[in-house]
Design a protein that fits this description.
Elements: H1 13-25, H2 27-35, E1 38-40, H3 49-70, H4 78-87, H5 92-119, H6 128-150, H7 155-169, H8 175-183, H9 190-222, E2 239-241, H10 242-267, H11 292-299, H12 306-327, H13 339-365, H14 367-385, H15 396-400, H16 402-405, H17 407-418, H18 421-425, H19 441-444, H20 447-455, H21 459-463, H22 473-485
Antiparallel strand pairs: 1-2
Bound molecules: heme C.
């Protein structure tokens, strides 16, 4: 590493101030460390992806802080607050779109960064920990994408996360526990939302900051690997300092990213569908595009084989990737001289692209699916176009929306319709000619009395053709929770 240039000049006032500051902070050495990093073979546009990721991270933090100012992580308010950001706040839709497209940009740039490191053999030569910290960052970003997806609490957020947590539930041994941990119970509700929110804004970011720090530190320690001709440990190529040329390249790339994200956000703002309705049995969830290959992959595994699909094969691929710099010890970096490494990477990447394409293809070919998806898209569009509607506290809306606050009652609501109670008592228990309204029933009877009444109906109820309700205990509980919620 080159010497710190001696620019000490205490003859001017600013020079004196600089010197005062430097003695207390060591700022000169820090900037020297940061900016004079030697790059073997010189600065290149090809090296912009790592710093591009830092830039996107910064953008996600800023837009995320903005969104968090309005957001309320509770099942009965989350959707309204996101609708408020999207429809009522000046520039709100734009910032939310930046955040949403930013997550896609992050995944794309990460894959490019990883592929480049892989193809260029830049993980070789004492870079094992650098590589591992990079993979951990990848996993953390995927976690951010997963937890962020639920937060708007619209139909697709709710049902896609239901699928995601169900998949986790399929894991052997820890599956059930993992699913409960993620959901904060057996059903999805406010507890789920609050867990995802905490993971998304506190927990995972804390790990991301730690590992970004580690990753950059380890990168600086190992030094830039340089072009594929360079030896990964002792590059003999002429070096060029990071500043100014590479800094300029990095800024150019960041500017291009700003342009793309801004343009996309302006031309095609992020969507928001109608509020999640857990009782909806028709809804067909589709994950964010970068999860589609996995979504498709899981279709091929069922029954006892599911373990192979969701644990064994992914574990093998991830294991091979993680241990790569430990077993691939040759210093050869030229891709055409590493056919096995490059071949297997292309195979996995190709399979993912194929699965993603297949997923879209499946949806387009099956007419019922295509119809339902089109209907959902139309509902989303209609919701986005509608004027913002604040929540009405204490109105009958509250009883209709109870499912959002209380997952048990949501289950009960479904039982209420499945057992045709609504046939006589009307939608949401509002009453018909064949049966009285059930609003306020929870105040009329206590829990046991109501339970008793359902199990052994009065003569009048029997005269009205109401049968005794015979359901297993847990379902009975859900039904009662729902009846109690009718106000
Ligand atoms: C065939 C029509 C019918 C169906 C189906 C039906 N009920 Fe009823 N239900 C009635 C009638 C009629 C009464 C009121 C009798 C009376 O006037 O007291 C009643 C009364 C009740 C009451 C007591 C209301 C009160 O204020 O005392 C409850 C609670 C109730 N039903 C719940 C249910 C539930 C839960 C279901 C579904 C499992 C259901 N009912 C299905 C017709 C029906």
């Amino acid at each position: 590493m080159s010497e710190i240039p001696n620019t000490e000049d205490t003859s001017t006032r600013s020079g004196k101030l600089m010197s005062w500051f430097d003695k207390r902070t060591g700022i000169k050495e820090l900037t020297h460390e940061a900016l004079d990093e030697p790059i073997p073979g010189g600065a290149r546009l090809a090296y912009v992806f790592g710093s591009g990721l830092l830039y996107i991270l910064l953008s996600q933090i800023i837009t995320g802080i903005f969104l968090a100012m309005y957001y309320v992580a509770s099942a009965d308010h989350a959707h309204t607050t996101v609708a408020y950001i999207t429809k009522a706040v000046t520039g709100g839709s734009f910032v939310r779109s930046l955040h949403s497209y930013g997550s896609s940009a992050m995944v794309v740039t990460l894959v490019v960064h990883l592929a480049q490191t892989y193809f260029w053999g830049a993980y070789k030569g004492r870079r094992e920990l650098l590589w591992l910290s990079g993979l951990i960052l990848f996993a953390l970003v995927i976690g951010m994408a997963f937890t962020g997806y639920l937060l708007p609490w619209d139909q697709k957020a709710y049902f896609a996360t239901a699928v995601g947590t169900n998949i986790a539930g399929e894991m052997p041994i820890i599956g059930d526990w993992l699913k409960r941990l993620m959901r904060g119970g057996t059903e999805m509700g406010t507890l789920t939302l609050s867990r995802f929110f905490v993971a998304h804004v506190f927990l995972i970011p804390a790990f991301i900051f730690t590992f970004v720090g580690t990753h950059v530190f380890l990168f600086r320690k190992a030094g830039s690997a340089g072009p594929i001709k360079a030896d990964p440990i002792e590059p003999k190529m002429k070096t060029e300092q990071f500043y100014p040329k590479q800094v300029v390249y990095d800024i150019v790339f960041a500017t291009i990213l700003v342009g793309i994200l801004g343009l996309l956000s302006y031309l095609s703002p992020a969507e928001l569908g109608p509020k999640a309705n857990p009782a909806d049995t028709q809804f067909m969830p589709r994950p964010e595009w970068y999860y589609l290959p996995i979504f498709q992959w899981l279709k091929y595994w069922s029954g006892p084989n599911v373990v192979i699909g969701i644990v064994v094969i992914p574990a093998i691929i991830i294991g091979c990737l993680a241990l790569l710099p430990f077993y691939d010890r040759k210093h050869q970096r030229k891709p055409w001289k590493r056919p096995i490494a490059i071949g297997s990477f292309l195979l996995v990447l190709g399979s993912l692209v194929f699965l993603g394409w297949q997923s879209g293809n499946d949806d387009a070919r099956d007419t019922t699916t295509a119809k339902q998806l089109a209907k959902q898209a139309a509902e989303t569009e209609a919701f986005i176009k509608a004027k913002f509607e604040p929540e009405l506290a204490g109105s009958s809306l509250a009883s209709q929306n109870i499912e959002l606050a209380d997952p048990l009652a949501a289950k009960g609501k479904k039982l209420f319709t499945d057992n045709s109670c609504d046939g006589c008592h009307g939608d949401n228990g509002t009453g018909t000619d064949a049966g009285p309204k059930l609003l306020g029933i929870g105040e009329k009877y206590n829990h046991d009395a109501l339970l008793n009444l359902l199990k052994t109906p009065t003569q009048k109820m029997k005269d009205g053709n109401m049968d005794p309700v015979e359901l297993p205990d847990d379902q009975m509980n859900a039904l009662l929770a729902y009846l109690n919620s009718l106000k």
